Amino acid sequence: MRTLFFALSLLGAAILPARAGVVTVTAPDDVRETPVSLLLPEATVKSAPAVTGADAISGQIEAAENGQVRLTFIARDLKKGVPRRFSVDASMPAVPGLGVEVKRVGENAEFWIGGKLFTRYDVTTGPNKPYFYPVFAPGNLQIVRHWPVEKTEGETTDHPHHRGLWFTHGKVNGVDFWTEKGEVGKTMHTAYDMLQSGPVYGLMRTRTNWVKPNGTKIAEDSRDIRVYDLNSGYVMDFAVTVKAVGGPLVFGDTKEGTFALRMADSMRAADDKGKPLAGHIINARGDKQAAAWGKAAEWCDYYGPVDGQTVGVAIFDDPKNPRHPTTWHVRDYGLFAVNPFGLHDFDKKNPAGAGDLTVPVGQSITFRYRLLFHKGTPDEARVVEFWQAFANPPAVRVE
């Protein structure tokens, strides 16, 4: 077996000169392109030359646990069941203007793709939560509403707590962390554990405390955000692990949550009176527009026009997530949220509290989502194909 060599800095962020070696990738379905990762023992990884007959691609590495390293690359043009060989080169450093850059800007952090801002993680201006704003789709088109972060003439001004892209919930141990006014809880950013740029993805790891209005901490979370630049669009992998502190943690049954975007006004599917507009909602089960609200589905897509071009974002619910397939708090006026907890609010046939989920003290729960920011309609962006590659990823064998 050819083995691989990766040189890591103490932070696991630097990529030093190294060849990577050859891998064989086999997909269970046709795949245009998808991120692929595998863990390898650090102690057994050696350098290897490029191999004739294998397509040369760039890879990226980072330190993992238990003496392992993680190799990640983008596999493209896979045919169902047909093995394809790639010669992965992990020697390419992060170069300004290429790949995905992660920059610290004051207390905030930014992701840049191909020299252009993709999004900013704002930990300073949200009254009670960190959030991503702005967020751009391919073509440098802002896919989230400006207000309330910025004032733009003619924009809607409802729901001032709908800020860009965020994660929180409306009832945690009875406390409202979703809205911003009154006696509300706060998710307070406490640290960046890692910021890493690279030719394949940008990585940000953060820590957050969940604090009641009286200052008592009831939870802490760690967030792992990876951003990839694909030919078909931008991909964000968002993983959050929430740990109960000081007592059990109860995510309550309410529609007000949980992982959400507020779409650009031009992408709304209906106005405040229900009149159809230019935007569209569709989920994996075929539910469309307002009918998708509260329904369970493996993925959902919200798309529509921005500056005369059709763009969208699909959110994929990881099959390993609790209560997969999740329910969706997606509204035709522009709110697009994953919410696995609001079972009674979504369907009154369920008893009150049916969606409550308790995390015992000292234990944690993890949610993982993939977002595909794409051009065109879901069919044009081949969203189903991207979902299949996420839910049932290609097999990888190191030669």
Polypeptide structure, described:
It is built from 3 helices and 25 strands. The protein has 399 residues and is mainly beta. The protein has 2 domains: 21-93, no CATH class; 100-393, Beta-galactosidase, Chain A, domain 5 (Distorted Sandwich), CATH 2.70.98. The strands form 5 sheets. An 8-stranded antiparallel beta sheet has the order 12-13-14-15-24-20-19-18. The longest helix has 9 residues, at 383-391. The protein starts with 20 loop residues before the first strand and ends with a strand. Residues 1-19 have low confidence and may be disordered.
Layout of helices and strands:
Elements: E1 21-26, E2 31-41, E3 55-63, E4 68-78, E5 84-89, E6 100-105, E7 108-113, E8 116-122, E9 131-137, E10 141-142, E11 165-169, E12 186-196, E13 201-211, E14 217-230, E15 233-244, E16 249-251, E17 257-262, E18 280-283, E19 299-306, E20 309-317, E21 328-330, E22 335-338, H1 343-346, E23 357-359, E24 364-375, H2 378-381, H3 383-391, E25 395-398
Parallel strand pairs: 3-5
Antiparallel strand pairs: 1-5, 1-25, 2-4, 3-4, 6-7, 7-8, 8-9, 9-10, 11-17, 12-13, 13-14, 14-15, 15-24, 16-23, 17-22, 18-19, 19-20, 20-24, 21-22
List keywords for this structure.
disordered N terminus; 8-stranded antiparallel sheet; 2 domains; 399 residues; 6-stranded mixed sheet; 25 strands; mainly beta; Beta-galactosidase, Chain A, domain 5
